[in-house]
Amino acid sequence: MKSGTPLVPRRKPRQSRAQVTCDAILTATAQILVKDGYDAASTNNVARVAGVSVGSVYQYFSSKEALVMAVMERHRAEGLTDLEEGMARLSGTTLREAIRLLIRQVLAKKAANPRLHEVLVEQLPRMRQLQQVDPYAVRMLRLVRTFLEPHAAEVRPRDLDMAAFIIFNTVESLTHVALTGRPEYLTRESYVDELCALVLGYLQPEREAVRRGGRLPERTPRTRTVAARKSRSSGKR
Amino acid sequence: MKSGTPLVPRRKPRQSRAQVTCDAILTATAQILVKDGYDAASTNNVARVAGVSVGSVYQYFSSKEALVMAVMERHRAEGLTDLEEGMARLSGTTLREAIRLLIRQVLAKKAANPRLHEVLVEQLPRMRQLQQVDPYAVRMLRLVRTFLEPHAAEVRPRDLDMAAFIIFNTVESLTHVALTGRPEYLTRESYVDELCALVLGYLQPEREAVRRGGRLPERTPRTRTVAARKSRSSGKR
DNA sequence: AGAGAATGTGAGCACGGACTCACGTTTTCA
DNA sequence: TGAAAACGTGAGTCCGTGCTCACATTCTCT
After folding, report:
1. Protein B53 CA to nucleic acid C23 C1', in Å?
2. What values do phi and psi take at A94, rounded to 5?
């Protein structure tokens, strides 16, 4: 792949048949990504699957990177509007309910097309274009921040930008790792519960509870419940 | 890269000069990964930088993937023993203190060689070998679980495996995204504070606080601070 | 109609990468 | 000491990939 190639300046489809070709190319790319991963998505292969010639691919996409980028863009735009709509439906709910709805939505979204999400997220760091500032990420964070602002008073974190960054990335990452490492979790209600607890616990004002929990054992625990001791020994290899 | 190549069966260094070559190769690989990324780490290039011939590389590593895998293994083993040692030093501290120490350790570890961590984490999903069960991940999770067990009684989550999964991945992911997206955060004390709040808040037993927080505004907020309203409108694009 | 623009074609080039192999050199050890 | 094993070499093979270009086809619009 040439490194100096500009990523944007390419012919835009003017006639409808061109639009069709363009769509076919994007769809084929997505399909290959899902089925065989990034490496299989060579320009020649994409052209073949799309039923067009390589030349046509390069009419509309200046490089392989631009091609994958376009698929990503399409997909992310969807995610963005989804979240926007989701947030619009929140009036009249408690913070707790709102967070649960949003988390559930993110999980459902990823579960709907797990493989595509997986591949795209993995390729994200390879996109030169995004190395500087990723407008999508910025908008996502702004959205979360906007969600937090009305609750600024009742919530612990003072730096809402950082809070948005943390919440967004927590939910995003935990969804992603569950997807790849623990697919069962995605459909397990308790996972949603835990994610909610995580976010809500983070937002809650401090208190003393766990701090009172006492010291860690020196060697062996002196006083401990039977259940605790049992699960402990079963945890050893 | 051939896909059918076995990843293990390769000559093991028996003489000391062989060990030297082997080390040189691994070091060169790591160095290239850090400086120029994965794509630059071609076998020929690795050999050149290591000062050996390509043939020697293939004496000990059956493929490029195996090569990178070896670097990863080395690096992850380090991380594992680090965490083990860190946990061994925790007796006599509160849960709160313990968590803070561990989080700070993870952050410091990544900040010490950010680029290597970054590249390796990015390449992780490409490793065919790990697609099934990743023994490193298993051991890490077991470690966290072992850490949690003595506190099973004073802590909210009932499923300690899931809790370990969530905590480990939260800290890991948030460290990583900070590394790549907000490097300033890594040295900011407040980021450590927030991560601690996140984990501790998650572990704390439930309570009513935020639930009482009331409803979200229907259309426009009725009662809201000036500051909140101001930053809110500025949040629009 | 027909000229020019838009669209589509695909053989093939240039390049670089992963990997092999036939052969030298050094070490081991009986 | 000398033969076998371990180690090291690097030119060279093979293959896929990204991408171009000269040309053919279709559309648009006066």
Report:
1. 14
2. -75, 165
Taking the CA of residue B76 and the C1' sugar atom of nucleotide C10, their distance in angstroms comes to 48
B71-205 folds as: Tetracycline Repressor; domain 2 (1.10.357)
- Whole-number Å distance between alpha carbons of B145 and B87: 12
CB pairs under 8 A between A and B: 206
Q: Is A221 helix (H, G, I), strand (E, B) or coil?
A: coil
The pLDDT tens digits of the residues spanning A55-107 come to 999 999 999 999 999 999 999 999 999 999 999 999 889 999 999 999 999 99
The CATH number assigned to the domain with range A68-205 reads: 1.10.357.10
Condensed to tens digits (0 to 9), the pLDDT of residues B15-39 reads 999 999 999 999 999 999 999 999 9
Residue A132 Cβ under 7 A from any strand D atom: no
| Chain A residues with CB-CB distance to B187 below 8 A | none
- Domain limits, CATH 1.10.357.10, in chain A: 68-205
Is the CATH code 3.90.190.10 the one for domain A10-62? no
CA nearest B180: which of B112, B113, B118? B118
With CB atoms and an 8 Å threshold, state whether A210 touches B169.
no
Under a CB-based contact definition with an 8 Å cutoff, are residues B25 and B60 in contact?
yes
Q: Torsion angle of alpha carbons B182, B184, B189, B194, nearest 10°?
A: -10
Say if the Cβ atoms of A194 and B122 lie within 8 Å: no
CATH architecture type of domain B12-61: Orthogonal Bundle (1.10)
